[in-house]
Design brief:
This protein is an alpha/beta fold. 36% of the residues lie in helices and 17% in strands. The chain contains twelve helices and nine strands.
């Protein structure tokens, strides 16, 4: 130990300051260090580059719905129907995911209103096993659609998923037609079905209910697609365009109707629900 270190350690006013490790967050897009409180007050949107960070299901429901909404109970489904095991048992993965999340699975439904417009909102949480679509997600989606049918109001679904849940095999893929049937029932009843695509929305979710909305809204910069960009590029052996599979590119090419900033999303949804509910509902 040299004399500088000895002197420094002997001086009480030179003691090392303890700094909490949760005061700052780095933007994954521009790498700017952001004060967590300001980041949260800005709805988890980077004030420097506008990158829209991922938020939980509860945060999304609180952001969009008026106060006093109710959260529907998660439907009971068979867990681990295939007794699946890779490096871990599927039951262990579910247990770990539930220890980090307040809900039993990746899809949560809230029933209430958006700026006094009656609505049911289903939110997919990427924080729960990558928002993967399994039996619980498919069943919860259908329960949300049924709630909208029972209330005679619009159904808004906020998607965020890496695709189907591999641990449930073909049973996860069966959720695609099941959810599609419920979107048809909403259409037959003349009720709005609006999809908000957030980062990322991919795989079987994109191939089913995520792209069946009467109106398709996307958050800025959201990754939206079926197969990954690298897989597509290796398959067709061509260089893909700049911004391929991003919200703005899809909007330009007609796959998305609107790209809406998170701070404007609530007003946008209320306006659409009011416009789409028709004279009879009014």
């Amino acid at each position: 130990m040299n004399w500088i270190t000895r002197v420094r350690n002997s001086l009480p006013f030179m003691a090392k300051r303890e700094t909490p490790d949760n005061l700052w967050v780095k933007c994954p897009s521009c790498q700017e260090m952001l004060f967590v409180k300001e980041y949260e007050e800005n709805l988890h949107v980077c004030p420097n580059c506008g990158h829209h960070g991922r938020i939980s299901a509860d945060q999304r429901l609180a952001l969009l719905l008026d106060e006093g909404y109710t959260v529907l109970p998660q439907p009971e489904v068979a867990e681990d129907p295939l007794k699946f095991k890779d490096s871990k048992k599927y039951t262990e993965r579910l247990k770990q995911a539930r220890a980090k999340n307040p809900h039993k699975d990746a899809f949560t439904v809230g029933s209430g209103a958006i700026l006094d417009q009656p609505a049911v909102i289903g939110v997919q949480d990427f924080g729960f096993m990558g928002g993967s679509m399994g039996m619980a997600v498919g069943t919860a989606f259908c329960a949300g659609a049924q709630e909208a049918l029972d209330r005679g109001c619009g159904y808004v679904v906020v998607t965020a998923a890496g695709g189907a849940r591999m641990q449930e095999g073909i049973l996860s893929l069966m959720q695609m037609p099941k959810a599609t049937v419920m979107t048809r029932r909403l259409k037959q009843a003349g009720l709005p079905y609006i999809v908000v695509l957030t980062d990322p929305t991919t795989g079987g979710v994109t191939a089913s209910y995520a792209m069946l909305g009467d109106v398709q809204i996307a958050e800025p910069g959201a990754l939206i697609g079926f197969a990954g960009q690298r897989v597509i590029q290796d398959t067709i052996r061509e260089q893909l365009p700049e911004g391929f599979q991003r919200a703005e590119y899809l909007h330009k090419h007609g796959m998305v109707d609107r790209v809406v900033h998170r701070k404007d999303l609530r007003e946008e949804l209320a306006m659409l629900l009011d416009y789409m509910r028709g004279e009879e509902a009014a």
